[in-house]
Amino acid sequence: MAGLLAIKPRVINVAALAEEALWQELELTPKPGLVDKSNNGSHRDMDHALFVRSIQAISPWFSRFEEAGRTFSRRAKSEQLSLLRPMGIACEQAMLRATHGVNTHKGGVFALGLLCFAAGRLAENGEQINALSLSSQVSGLCQGMVQRELASRTSMATAGERQFHQFGLTGARGEAESGFATVMRYVLPYWNPRAMHEMLLRLMAVNPDSNLVSRGGIVGLRDVQMYAQQLLSRGWEYDDLVRMDKQLIERNLSPGGSADLLSVAWVLGECKHYPLPPKGRG
Question: Which of 44, 69, 109, 267 is least crowded, fewest Cβ atoms below 10 Å from its Cβ?
């Protein structure tokens, strides 16, 4: 109709979604065993203010990861991680400077950095950006990571190596190599950005969270998974999460891996049905 302005479709911005995801995860309260607006969870060296500084330090890097994906889009997938790694390390160093050495978001930098990098590759190659294409792209970029960085090493010098050889857990590397299969299978079919507690419980119920294993062993992991499954099956209210928070704090358990995947879920859940960003966008 004459005189009416055409409504331009929203263009996806994965870097902006990644930053938004970190804020959404931080502000969600209560968050059992994790830092939120009410308490520090099971963390004596972290609080809400520290996470704010960490997010502020990390966020400018997301657009750089995306631009790197564009820049290196024609390079072989086998070369991509080695090209991305120095930038990831630099982002981690910015985080550590802001937090005075406390690891607040290393898992988030890894997962969200990969998603931003993948988005840049997809956009530069003229491919649609959505949850499925991002998942597939990240999986392709990370193929062989578990074998190279866990299975082929016998030193068990890191927590990840020990958990792989003792329990077969692949941690953040396995999630990335699978294209964040836990999120794709157990959260996205039920995605609701206004029900983030429910989304977190869905992750906690199934995620083989390496953070829980580090703090409470396999028993701690299984107990938290079962607790979340019970809440989901019988229905839960706000007070149930407060009680769960108290119990996890008493046992020094923190589902940090599920918190990272909740941020991944936000990005994948919110990037549906958007057109491609203009090619060459800086």
Answer: 44
Percent of the chain whose predicted confidence (pLDDT) is above 70 = 92
- CA dist., res. 109 & res. 43, Å (int): 19
pLDDT tens sequence across 101-122: 999 999 999 999 999 999 999 9
Helix axes 14-27, 106-124, angle to 10 degrees: 160
Classify residue 218 as exposed, middle or buried by CB count within 10 Å of its CB (0-12, 13-18, 19+): middle
- Decide if 77 contacts 140 (C-beta within 8 A): yes
Residue 9: pLDDT over 60? no
Which pLDDT belongs to residue 275? Answer: 46
Which single residue is written with the structure tokens 């578990």?
A: 146
Q: What is the mean pLDDT of residues 91-95?
A: 98
SS3 string, the chain, reads CCCCCCCCCCCCCHHHHHHHHHHHHHHCCCCCCCCCCCCCCCCCCCCHHHHHHHHHHHCHHHHHHHHHHHHCCCCCHHHHHHHHHHHHHHHHHHHHHHHCCCCCCHHHHHHHHHHHHHHHHHHHCCCCCCHHHHHHHHHHHCCCHHHHHHHCCCCCCCHHHHHHHHHCCCHHHHHHHCCCHHHHHHCHHHCCCCCHHHHHHHHHHHCCCHHHHHHHHHHHHHHHHHHHHHHHHHCCCHHHHHHHHHHHHHCCCCCHHHHHHHHHHHHHHHCCCCCCCCCCCC
pTM, to two decimals: 0.92
Q: Give dist(CA 49, CA 66) in Å, integer.
A: 27
Q: How does residue 241 score in pLDDT terms, banded at 50, 70 and 90?
A: very high
Cβ–Cβ under 8 Å, residues 218 and 209: no
